[in-house]
């Protein structure tokens, strides 16, 4: 309706000019995927801007007959498409005028008869990219919408729902909606918080799982934050030697990190996530409606992982995050959407290339070597995971500066951004021997060395093996050491 109104009031030429202006600006300011309307690529200025900015242009070619059928089936009215004959005639003329120009795109895919998922698969293969290891869907709406999406991603079998007890009302309403649609779902309640990631909690899930019917045709569904997806995912990996799992992420940390990529794990007194398994989910649902009730501290914790992903992605992503800082703290929808998309795209691209962390996926540990040591040294209670990662990011950048690996000013720049987002940035003054012991127990340790992710500048990060003695010496120079703050 709005498009029809704009065409009627301004005329197509004026609308196309404004469209081209907006698209050119987006091509300069954004990374990722930009889906253009039918006429945008006809503009020479748009084509030139795409080429200049290094975008890969993909032409999804559809013959006029099928395009007309899709337009007529769409409840949204299109300008000039007032009936079958008129619509087909219009699309015939547009196709004749544009096809040769659009065929100059970097990639041309014929899409007649293909579903959207098949079109995406075709683009991925043609571009030489790795397919996503699992689908990720953003969900608005309440329990009814969640129940409907679960029915879509898990079309058959019973559901074993591992859920955070704090979400009792929403989960019970979802289960009731599923039951009304003939789906059986049993709930196992767990506690949130890092202290719950224990062997005892996992054993409780195993026991509850076998308290009712369960077979290999059933699916585990986790509903909660990162702790719940870690626990429930590990349970799914071990029940009957592996059941499928769907993660419903209800915290920002879960949406941008923990639920993605198939890592599961438990904490031990000796260290963070020392017991676990890789177990890719069937799907991840980012339940956007749940963010409205997330405490400020928990929301900020998730932003630490977004900052990490911006550092891995590049300068444009980091600058956008700096520009969005105030809007993120206010939880403005557009800024939150950009942050979630950035982190999701960054992590999924690395996981697709290296699902078992034998190479590039280890870059996602930026900030985590010190962060995990800090969590373990303070008993998994003083810092949220994202708070520890924020401190770890600054520590990695400062250590990188000392090694000559990080550009001057990067540590201060990132520390300022993290502080604006409400996150801590300074290491507590723990005794050096505490740091050394925790780093020695890190699962990424290699003999008497520690595998650090160091960052020269945004978009240029690499793994570096650093002798533990050198890390220890830096810590001893940096802190006098006192247990008073533990």
Protein model, in words:
With 486 residues, the protein is an alpha/beta fold. The chain has 3 domains: 2-127, Rossmann fold; 136-294, Rossmann fold; 355-485, Dehydroquinate synthase-like - alpha domain (Dehydroquinate synthase-like, alpha domain, Up-down Bundle), CATH 1.20.1090.10. 51% of the residues lie in helices and 15% in strands. The protein is built from 19 helices and 13 strands. The strands form 4 sheets. It has a 6-stranded parallel beta sheet with strand order 3-10-7-6-4-5, with helices on both faces. A hairpin with a 2-residue loop joins strand 11 (445-446) and strand 12. The longest helix has 21 residues, at 333-353. The termini are far apart. Residues 480-486 have low confidence and may be disordered.
Q: Main traits of this protein?
A:
486 residues, Dehydroquinate synthase-like, alpha domain, Rossmann fold, disordered C terminus, alpha/beta, three-stranded antiparallel β-sheet, six-stranded parallel β-sheet
Which helices and strands appear, and what pairs or packs with what?
Layout: H1 2-10, H2 12-29, H3 44-52, E1 58-61, H4 64-73, H5 84-102, E2 107-110, H6 116-127, E3 136-139, H7 143-153, E4 159-164, H8 168-180, E5 185-190, H9 199-209, E6 219-224, H10 226-238, E7 245-249, H11 252-258, E8 263-268, E9 271-278, E10 283-287, H12 296-313, H13 315-329, H14 333-353, H15 368-377, H16 385-403, H17 410-420, H18 432-440, E11 445-446, E12 449-457, E13 460-467, H19 468-478
Parallel strand pairs: 1-2, 3-10, 4-5, 4-6, 6-7, 7-10
Antiparallel strand pairs: 8-9, 11-12, 12-13
């Amino acid at each position: 309706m709005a498009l029809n109104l704009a065409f009627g009031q301004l005329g197509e030429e004026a609308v196309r000019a404004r469209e081209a202006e907006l698209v050119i600006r987006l091509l300069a300011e954004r990374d990722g995927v930009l889906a253009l309307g039918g006429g945008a690529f006809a503009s020479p200025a748009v084509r030139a801007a795409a080429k200049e900015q290094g975008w890969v242009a993909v032409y999804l070619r559809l013959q006029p007959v099928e395009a007309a059928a899709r337009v007529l089936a769409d409840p949204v009215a299109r300008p000039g498409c007032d009936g079958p004959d008129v619509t087909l005639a219009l699309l015939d003329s547009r196709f004749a005028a544009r096809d040769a120009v659009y065929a100059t795109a970097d990639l041309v895919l014929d899409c007649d008869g293909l579903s959207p998922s098949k079109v995406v698969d075709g683009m991925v293969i043609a571009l030489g990219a790795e397919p996503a290891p699992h689908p990720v869907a953003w969900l608005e709406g309440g329990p009814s919408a969640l129940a409907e999406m679960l029915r879509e991603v898990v079309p058959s079998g019973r559901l074993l729902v591992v859920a955070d007890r704090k979400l009792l009302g929403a989960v019970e309403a979802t289960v009731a909606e599923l039951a009304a649609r003939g789906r059986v779902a049993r709930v196992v309640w767990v506690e949130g918080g890092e202290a719950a990631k224990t062997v005892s909690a996992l054993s409780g899930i195993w026991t509850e799982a076998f308290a009712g019917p369960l077979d290999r045709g059933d699916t585990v569904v986790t509903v909660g934050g990162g702790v719940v997806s870690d626990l429930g995912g590990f349970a799914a990996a071990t029940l009957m030697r592996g059941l499928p799992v769907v993660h419903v992420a209800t915290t920002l940390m879960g949406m941008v990190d923990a639920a993605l990529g198939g890592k599961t794990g438990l904490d031990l007194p000796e260290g963070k996530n020392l017991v676990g398994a890789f177990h890719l989910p069937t799907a991840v649902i980012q339940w956007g409606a749940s963010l409205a009730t997330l405490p400020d501290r928990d929301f900020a914790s998730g932003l630490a992982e977004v900052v990490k992903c911006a550092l891995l992605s590049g300068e444009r992503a980091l600058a956008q995050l700096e520009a969005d800082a105030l809007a993120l703290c206010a939880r403005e929808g557009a800024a939150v959407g950009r942050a979630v998309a950035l982190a999701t795209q960054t992590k999924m691209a690395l996981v697709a290339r290296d699902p078992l962390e034998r190479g590039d996926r280890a870059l996602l540990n930026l900030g985590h070597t010190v962060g995990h040591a800090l969590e373990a040294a303070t008993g998994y209670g003083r810092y949220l995971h994202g708070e520890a990662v924020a401190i770890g990011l600054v520590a990695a950048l400062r250590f990188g500066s000392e090694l000559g690996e990080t550009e001057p000013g990067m540590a201060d720049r990132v520390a300022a951004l993290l502080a604006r987002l409400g996150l801590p940035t300074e290491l507590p003054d723990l005794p050096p021997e505490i740091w050394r012991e925790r780093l020695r127990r890190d699962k990424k340790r290699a003999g008497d060395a520690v595998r650090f992710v160091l960052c020269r500048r945004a978009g240029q990060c690499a793994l570096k093996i650093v002798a533990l003695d050198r890390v220890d010496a830096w810590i001893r120079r940096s802190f006098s050491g006192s247990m008073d703050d533990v």
